[in-house]
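TASK: fixed-backbone design
INPUT:
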């Protein structure tokens, strides 16, 4: 039920599967850049910077799966 509400709301707002896939790829790029930056800070701040990179690294799969749900919604609406 909740998944349908989210995907319908995003679809009405104009989001499509491709948009969420691009956001997911951007999240991967951001995670990698934060991880590389974590290697350049001093030892005291490194743990926090690595945790930030890991936290951002959790976003891409979520956005990709939401995009997949939007794609299924788009296909269902085309068949009607």
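OUTPUT:
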């Amino acid at each position: 039920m909740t998944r349908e509400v989210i995907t319908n709301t995003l679809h009405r707002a104009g989001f499509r599967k491709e948009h969420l896939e691009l956001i997911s790829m951007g999240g991967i790029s951001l995670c990698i850049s934060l991880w590389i930056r974590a290697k350049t800070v001093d030892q005291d701040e490194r743990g926090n910077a690595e945790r930030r990179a890991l936290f951002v690294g959790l976003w891409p799969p979520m956005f990709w799966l939401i995009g997949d749900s939007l794609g299924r919604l788009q296909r269902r609406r085309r068949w009607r």
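COMMENT: The chain has four helices and no strands.
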